[in-house]
TrEMBL record:
GO function terms (MF aspect): NADH dehydrogenase (ubiquinone) activity
Record's GO cellular component terms: membrane
Family: Belongs to the complex I subunit 4L family.
Protein name (Swiss-Prot/TrEMBL): NADH-ubiquinone oxidoreductase chain 4L
Residue intervals passing through the bilayer: 6-21, 28-50
UniProtKB keywords: Membrane, Mitochondrion, NAD, Translocase, Transmembrane, Transmembrane helix
Length: 72
């Protein structure tokens, strides 16, 4: 189950990177794909932190900075 979750989140990440690189003339699509990439990285970090039983303190920092980046 762990490998399926990792592959799924990486697939989502690369789909976001593809949309980011292919829709460079449409500003709204670029911004939405950046948020999509951030959400996929957030999901990947959650999967790794749950699997290896680490503290979720880093997750809150990532969440804080991604929200601030999205608000800009």
């Amino acid at each position: 189950m762990f490998m399926f979750s990792v592959f799924t989140s990486l697939l989502i990440y690369f789909a976001g990177v593809y949309v980011f690189s292919s829709k460079r003339k449409h500003l709204l699509m670029v911004l939405l794909s950046l948020e999509y990439i951030v959400l996929s990285l957030f999901m990947l970090i959650i999967i790794f932190l749950i699997e290896f039983d680490y503290d979720y303190f880093f997750l809150f920092f990532f969440w804080f900075f991604s929200v601030c980046e999205g608000a800009l």
